[in-house]
Specification:
Rossmann fold; 5-stranded parallel β-sheet; 5 helices; binds 1,3,4-trihydroxy-5-OXO-cyclohexanecarboxylic acid
């Protein structure tokens, strides 16, 4: 059974509450239950942190044994050399995902420090971006 972890970064604990016009009405916990029901043949786990170092620690912890990471690093995508380096330093492939189409938004969201070290990038499909990220590993 493939082991895949979804990692959400800062402010994504507020999904369903925060800026619903951009990020939608659904909270991540209920979406994750739907994902687990959809992918019964995948060992799916979830981690969220608002702290850069905790995201890096998690990547180090699982990044040599898991089959894939679906990572939405939120705003750290656009600022964090350190998360980019962490992705480069592990062997587990990482797919960068975003709920919104960051390229339709402010210019500061157009650059990613993570993407050069990721297998690919999926953005703009709402929560389905995560589903597509999982599918990319199967
Ligand atoms: C986001 C896009 C980022 O620019 C933003 O900072 C987020 C969420 C998305 O999923 O669309 O927090 O990663």
């Amino acid at each position: 059974m493939k082991k895949i972890m979804i990692i959400n970064g800062p402010n994504l604990n507020l999904l369903g509450v925060r800026e619903k016009n951009i990020y939608g009405n659904q909270d991540f916990a209920s979406f994750f239950e739907e994902l687990k029901a959809q992918y019964t043949d995948v060992d799916l786990s979830y981690f969220q942190s608002n702290h850069e170092g905790e995201i890096i620690d998690k990547l180090h912890e699982i990044g040599f044994t898991y089959d894939g990471v679906v990572l939405n690093a939120g705003a750290y995508t656009h600022t964090s050399l350190a998360i980019g380096d962490a992705i480069a330093g592990i062997t587990t492939p990482v797919v960068e995902v975003h709920i919104s189409n960051v390229h339709k938004r402010e210019a500061f969201r157009h650059h990613s420090y993570l993407a050069p070290n990721c297998t690919g990038v999926i953005c703009g499909f709402g929560l389905q971006s995560y589903t597509l990220g999982i599918a990319s590993f199967l």
